[in-house]
Amino acid sequence: MPAPSSKFVKVFFLAIILMLPGVIYLLMSKGIHHYTKLPYIGPKEAVKNADGGYDTTYHQIPYFEFTNQDGETVTRDDLLGTVYVTDFFFATCPTICPKMAGNMKYLQDKFKDKKNLRFISITVNPEHDTPEVLKDYAEMVHADTDNWTFLTGDKDAIYEAALKGFFISVGEDEVAPGGFLHSQYFILVDKNGHIRGLFDGTVYSEMKKDLTDALDILYREESVPFKGQANKNKLEQRK
User: Fold this and answer.
1) Is 104 within 8 Å of 199 (Cβ atoms)?
2) Which residues contact 59 (CB under 8 A, 6 or more apart)?
3) CATH number, span 57-223
4) What is the tens place of the pLDDT at every residue in 57-97?
5) Residues with Cβ < 8 Å from 146, sequence gap 6 or more?
6) How far is CA 97 from CA 159, 163, 171, 177, 183, in A?
7) What is the pLDDT of residues 5-40, one digit of tens each?
C-alpha cells in the first residue's frame, strides 16, 4: 500500500488542530468534569421552566444607583457583565480601611491584565465622602480609577444595598473609631450579579491565596459553562 503523500498528512493534521478546541469545549461543557465551582451565597429559589423542569435562581444584587469619584452615575446594571470585588469603607476610617485599601490595591495590581474585572469601594459616610473627597482618597491609596471605582450616594440607599444586597452590616456608631461600623469583608460578585465569596479584606494571605484562587476559578467557570448554566442564563435574561 503506498504511503500517504506529505500534502495529505499536512491537511489531516491541520484539520485535527482546527477541530481540537471545539472538541475540548464540548467535552468540558457537556461531559463530566471535576472543576471546583464556587458556591452561590444567599437565598435561592426553584423556578419552573418551559420544559416542565426546574431551574434554580440565586440571590442577585438588587438595583442601586450611586455616584463615583468623578461625579458620574454608576448603577447595578452598569456592573452586569463584569466580575467585581466590592467593599465598604469611609475616607476618615482610622482602623481597618487603610489595610483594606492596601489589599485592594494588591488585587488591582495582580490582576491588571484581567479583562472585565472591577473593584468597587462604597462609602458608609456619604455625607462627608463627596465625589471630591473620594477622588482625593483614590489618589492617596494610588488607585487606578479606570477599574477601581469609589461610590457615594444617599445614606439610606447605601445602607439598604449593603444589608439586603451584599449581606453586609453597616451603620453609624458614636462609640466606634471614626463614628461608623462596617464589615472588613471583600465581596466577590460574578457577571450576573451573584455573590460568590466573602473574604477578609484585612488579611493579606486571604488576598494572596483564597481570593486569588476564587477569581481564577470563577473565570474558568465562566469560560467553561457547567450543565444547566445556559438555561440559568436565559432565565436571568428574562428578569
Assistant:
1) no
2) 40, 41, 42, 43, 44, 194, 195
3) 3.40.30.10
4) 999 999 999 999 999 999 999 999 999 999 999 999 999 99
5) none
6) 17, 19, 15, 11, 10
7) 555 444 444 444 344 344 333 333 343 334 578 999
Sign of CA pseudo-dihedral 60, 63, 68, 72: positive
Three cell numbers written together for 3: 504511503
Query: Minimal CA–CA distance to 73: which of 159, 167, 144, 149?
Result: 149
Segment among 10-19, 47-56, 138-147 with least mean pLDDT: 10-19
Taking the alpha carbons of 54, 59, 63, 69 in that order, is the dihedral positive or negative? negative
Predicted local distance difference test score (pLDDT) of residue 152 = 98
Look at residue 179 in the predicted model and tell me its pLDDT: 87
C-alpha cell read off for 137: 482618597
Question: CA 174, 177, 180, 181 torsion: positive or negative?
Answer: negative
DSSP 3-state assignment of 136? helix
Domain ranges of the chain: 57-223
Whole-number Cα distances in Å, 66 to 84, 135, 148, 191 = 16, 15, 15, 19
Distance CA 64, CA 154 (A): 10
Biggest CA–CA distance in the chain, Å, is: 91
pTM over 0.90: no
